[in-house]
Every structure is written in structure tokens, then in C-alpha cells.
Queue: 2 jobs
Job 1
Amino acid sequence: MKKFKAYRVHTIDGKPVCRFETLSLDDLDPGPVVIKTAYSAVTYKDAMAARGVGKNVRTDRPCVTGVDLSGEVVSSADSRFREGDKVIVTNYKLGVDQDGGYADYARVPADWIVPLPEGLSLYEAMALGTSGLTAALAVDRLEQAGLKPAQGPVAVTGSTGGVGSLAVDIFAKRGFDVTAITGKLDQADFLKSIGAKTVMSSRDLLADKSPLVAKMLWAGALDNVGGEYLDRLTAYAMPHAKISVAGMAVGAEWKTTVLPLILRSIDIMGINVSRQLKMPERQRLWKRLGSDLKPQNLAKIARPIAFEELDKAMDRFFNVTTIGRVVVEVGQKAERLA
Ligand SMILES: NC(=O)c1ccc[n+]([C@@H]2O[C@H](COP(=O)([O-])OP(=O)(O)OC[C@H]3O[C@@H](n4cnc5c(N)ncnc54)[C@H](OP(=O)(O)O)[C@@H]3O)[C@@H](O)[C@H]2O)c1
């Protein structure tokens, strides 16, 4: 039987031990659709699994991690897919409780698979991945709630991260004036080059602690950080602002008062691209990511790394030095993007 390379996490004495191993298909969790992986990515969730943070990966047996993958169907026992189909899988239990994207092959349930939409290559699909889907859902929901560029600027926190940088680009493409809020002011030129009109340091955002700030800066926002950041976004919001909440990079707590929500009639909406995001909606958003929501600066936002570099890439997530998206060349070398 054919052997291939995989990056697996074992839990030994309660601690994660990651290593490259040689596996065959029978070593993978069963699933009716066999995919030859082209690319995966590195997300915060992957870094958590590799370093044992938050205990998000199964511990009773080893797991091939990698919560995102794109590739080509090799065989399918499900009539919805056939050999040669190009596909994307993100989230569900992939890479945490079902062997995931860090292997030359994956076996997955057909219900988790999105056909690669027109307008995206397999590489671009992973330049977007979970982060792109999250940014797309946030923009889509804000617009459906009535947010329009004429109402005022939008803010994005954690703007050099995967979700943040893609959101900056997508909002700008949709015609919004974007304020990119970041702890990395040295990345201001990068943020402007992907569509930010204004760059604000996180320190400046957090400086004023009053519940309502006189300067009402934003008609909309996407928060990837949580905690005080979300509190400050509400304090600086314009009347009737809409704020989508996707992340909690600084923690799950949200300390605030209800004053801005009531006095400025602010809408807060939660964003979740886990299995709660139903397949028709998932497919609709991926189609938009291949067309009207497709970022214009993917070549700047995503960078490829060789499969062998994977372990080193994990630690960068914890010292907050990763910029944009990291695409892993599992079975294919990265294509050059325009
Ligand atoms: N809701 C969902 O379905 C969903 C899906 C995907 C991800 N997420 C969550 O969304 C968040 C962003 O994901 P991501 O993939 O973009 O992560 P990421 O690439 O690690 O980016 C997070 C960004 O947040 C900022 N940040 C990180 N740690 C911080 C800290 N301690 N204090 C202040 N700022 C900090 C940094 O940006 P700056 O340096 O530019 O400030 C960092 O680049 C994460 O919490 C992730 O778990 C949620």
C-alpha cells in the first residue's frame, strides 16, 4: 500500500508531541471521500493543537492536524463527488478529531466538502481558508444588516492577522474606508497596501477608558481580539453602528457597559464558521470569495511555506509575529499569484 508523509500530534504524559510520520491510507480516520491534499494552512487553532493550548485536539489517539485543506478527489463512495473534483474542506472536526490537512491524503465525510468555486485556484483557496470564510461571513452579515460605505468608516482589530488582513482587503474592495487597528505599527505600510485608509495603534484605541467617547469614528467593525478591544469599538461607534465579533485573540472576556449599545443603538453580531455554518451558506460564501468578495491582494497577504517548515511556523502564532495567512505546500508547490 502507498505510503505518504503526515504531521501528527500524539499526546504523551498529557503533553502534545508533534512529528512527521509515514502513514498509509488505512492509518487515517475513515471517510467516504479520499482527497489528495494540495495545500493546507496554519491557523491559530492548528497552533493550539500543536502546542497543547486549550486542549482542542483529541488526546486518546494521534491526530493528523491541519484544520484547512484544498485538493483533488482521488476516490469517492459518495455520489456527490468523483475522481478529479477540486475541493475545499475547512473546520467541522478536521484536524482536531478527524485526521486533517497536514498529510498527502485525507479521508473525509462528503458533508464537509465544498466544491472549489469558479474564480479560485487550490492555492488561493488556502490563502483564504478558515480566515477568508470568517472575514467573508462578517462582511456578508454586516452588509445584510444594512451597513453601507456611505454611513462611515469601518474598523478591523487584529488587522495584521489572517482574518484581519483579509477583512481589510475585502472591506476596501466593497468601497469602505477601513481603519486597521494593530499592535504592529511597523506594518502600517503593509496594511495600507492591502486597502487600509487609516492605521491606528492598539495602544491609541485603548487609551480612553470612558464608556462613550465623544469622537464617534466607525459605522461598522469586525473584532478579532475581544476583551477591552470590543469594549473600545463600542465606545467609539457611531449611532446605529454594526459590529461583528469573530475572535478572542486576547481572551473570551468582554468587560463593558451597556451604555453605547443602548444610547447609540449598536448592533453586535457573532460570527461562527464552525459546523454551525450550514453547507448551503458555506457554499454561497465560497462562491462570493471567488467573485465579488475575492481579496485583491492575496499575493501580499498569504505566503507559502514548505511542508517541512510547519513546526517552526506554529510558535510564531504565540509570539504574535505572523502576518496574514500561511499556506502549507503539502502536495503541491505554491503558484505565483498576480
Ligand atoms: N468565529 C470564528 O468562526 C473564527 C474563525 C477563525 C478564527 N477565529 C478567531 O479569530 C481570531 C483571529 O483569527 P486569526 O486566524 O486572524 O488569528 P491570527 O492570525 O493569530 O491573528 C490574530 C491577530 O490579533 C492580534 N492579537 C493577537 N494576540 C493579541 C493579544 N494578546 N492582544 C492584542 N492583539 C492580539 C494580532 O494582530 P495585530 O498585531 O495586528 O493587532 C494578531 O495578528 C482568533 O481569536 C481566532 O481564534 C474565529
Job 2
Amino acid sequence: MTTNSKLVNLGLIGFGDMGRGHCIGFNKLSECNIMAVADPNEKQLETAREFLKKSSPHLCTDYRELLDIPELDAVVISTPNYLHAPITIDAMKAEKHVFLEKPVAINVKQMDEIIKTMSEMKKIVQIGLVYRYSNLYRTMAHLVEKGTFGRVMMAYCKEYRDNFATPWFFDEKKSGGAILEKNCHHFDLFNWFIRSPPKKVFSMGGQHVYKPGHVIQCAFSPFKGQKLEQPPTIVDHANVVIEYENGAKGNLGLCMYEISPIEGLEIGIIGDNGAWGLAKNDRSLTIAGGPVGELREVEVDYYSDNENLGHVGCQVERMAFLECVKEEKQPHANLLIARDACLIGIASEKSIKEERIVSLSEFSNPEIDKIFNDLGVERFPPTPSLFSLDEKRLKARKKRELKNKERALQRELRAIREELDRL
Ligand SMILES: NC(=O)c1ccc[n+]([C@@H]2O[C@H](COP(=O)([O-])OP(=O)(O)OC[C@H]3O[C@@H](n4cnc5c(N)ncnc54)[C@H](O)[C@@H]3O)[C@@H](O)[C@H]2O)c1
């Protein structure tokens, strides 16, 4: 499609946790129309029918039937990771643009096949690196680009959380491993803030808790309390160290067996001028040290980019995809940026298995470099601006929040009075 007045006709492939999130989010955007949903699980299709009652989309169990719909402009792929490559390649060959959930694929060969097909078919492929679209991490990147931290020479991520929600994640052949699956987001943040190519990776990890017959403990999982049928083949903890070409270092500490309430996520950066920044649980950003001085909270609009519909950035990511499809332009979370992030994950998994430092040059491919060069895709583009909803919508939200707070306080007051009456 080349005209930017037309609606983007979308098909959703995979209607599990993430597919449902995309359905709700895209369905709120007037620039698109969800025409079809594919999922082999009939129950998921029933849920899709319920969610999309008003538009009655075409529902099918085989995604190839969805791809045969000529009016579809683009598809959103939210399937288990081992299916990302075959489905994305089929979609592009059927002339569809693609929004593909992270990680790009479960190995380098599959990632590079996707990139080659993207170039041959001249399609837009945006990867679900949702943080790239969030006001929180864009604010952090803007501070980096302004020189607040001098040069960022240390980046760290502490992700201490509970299990994956669904059994397929525990099978390395399906997910590509816990580190690739989960932490490609965080490796992308490191690359974004350090702004130098990653060079070497060393990682140690294993299974402290995951054993045959492991019981899923994730707080929000529909499978909570269920025993895995197959022994888990992914790590449940790891420490990863990355060295960048400019000498910067990144490190990740991953633990996937805490039980709710969990410690959560921290993303920190330290610059060579002694200043540092720390984002906690996608909900706060503090900076201090060096020329910044005393610790202070940086104000961030945490609502406009996601409207409480999922991860920070999720609505902006969807709006941006529709714009890229309409204008046929490469997305910010493009395949080059995503390949770089996933390579660190793949190298980490390899480093654990082979007990050695893995150099990222082992994965270099001149054909892939040439594709991105010809497309003019930059590895370190300037960070796009923040997104803010209009005053009216923000005011309405503030009002809703205050009303909820008022109701909660009234409930608490009633409880106190009842307690007093009893004494
Ligand atoms: N961006 C993020 O922050 C984020 C968060 C969670 C998950 N994800 C990604 O989203 C993807 C899906 O994860 P999830 O948590 O929704 O998993 P899920 O298991 O909840 O859902 C996967 C769905 O895919 C369906 N499916 C399986 N084979 C299919 C096929 N051949 N065709 C169509 N559908 C098929 C399954 O029936 C299921 O409904 C994964 O790649 C995951 O990494 C991204």
C-alpha cells in the first residue's frame, strides 16, 4: 500500500497472551482494521471471536489460510519463537508486511533467512522490542545523547523474577533458551545506551531449581501449579558479561525462580564522568553522581505510551508500525537493531554450553551487512521523541485515577470506623 489515507488491514497470527494484547491495542487504533486471526487452538479463536464481536474477522486454524487473503496488508506474529522464521518468511512471500514479536528467531541462520527475504520481497519488518517506543527508555537514551553521563561505559541489568508463563518457553528448541527469549530486550537497551558494537560475550548459567517435573510458579500464568511434561532444557539463572568495541562493559544477572512477590527489573548505566542512571521495574528513573550531583527522580509520562494496555511503549510501538506500513519506511526497531540484540542472547547461550568466551564476529555475515547498508539502516540512529496523549485524555485519566484513590480511601475509612465501633 502506498496511499496514507487507507486503513491498514491486519491479520493476527498467534492469539495467546501477547496476541491478545496486540488485539486489544490495535483494535483501539482507528488507522487499522483487524480482518483475520489464525491460531491452531480453537479455544484461542473463540476468545478472538469474543474480543472482536463488532468486526467479525475471518478465523482460521492454519495461518496459510490467513495469508491467502489478498486484502491483508500486514500481519502481527505472536507465536512460539521456533515458528517466527517460517511464518515470517511465508508472510513476506505472500506480500504482507510483518510485525514480529521478539526474539527475531531461535538461531542466526533463521534470523539471516528472514533478513534476506525482507530484502528480496521489499517488506517492512518491525520487531517487538517494545522498550524502543517507551517514554522511560527514550528519556534515558536522550540523557545519554545529551552527554549527561559522558560516555556510557558500564550498563547492567538485574532481572530477578518468576518462571515463564507457558510450557513451550521451558523447551530450548522452541524458545531458543531463557536468555535469548527474555533478555534480548535488555541487551538491546545496553546497545542503545552504549552506542558501540558488542564484541565478546561470556556467560555462566545453569539449573538451580528447574528439574524434571518442574511446577510452573508464574503468578499470572494460566498454567500456574501445572507440572511440565518434559524436563526443562533452559537455564533458570545466568550471569552474562559483554565487552563492546569501545571497551564498555555490560552485565546481566538473571534469576527465573523467584516466587511472587518478585524483586523485578533494574536497568542501570554509569558514565565515564561518574554520573549514573537507574530505571526500576519500568516505573521510575533516578539519576545522580558526577556533574548531575545529588540523586533526583526524572519525571516520565508512564501512561501515554501504553495506556495501561501492556508493557511501557506498547501503544506507540503499534502506532509506529502502522505508520511504517503506510509510508513504507523502515521501523525504528528494525531487523538490524534486533539482530544485534539477539546475537548477544545467542552468544550467551553458546558460551554456557561451550564454556568459553564467544566472539560476535563468529556470526558476522557480509551479505547481511550489505543489505542494511543498501537500505540505509543505521545501527545507532538518533532516539525518536517522546509521545504524549492530548491534554483531554490525560486529564480524563488523572480524574479516573483520583476517583479510584478516593474510593479506596473511603473503603479504608469504613473499615477503620467498623473496627473502632467494635472496640
Ligand atoms: N514484547 C514483549 O515484551 C513480549 C512479551 C511476552 C511475549 N512476547 C513474545 O510473544 C510471542 C508469544 O508469546 P506468548 O506469551 O503470547 O505465548 P503464548 O503461548 O501465550 O501464545 C502463543 C500462541 O501461538 C499459538 N500458535 C502456536 N502455533 C501456531 C501456529 N502455527 N500458527 C498460529 N498460532 C500458533 C498458540 O496456540 C498460542 O495461542 C513469543 O515470541 C514471545 O517471546 C513478547
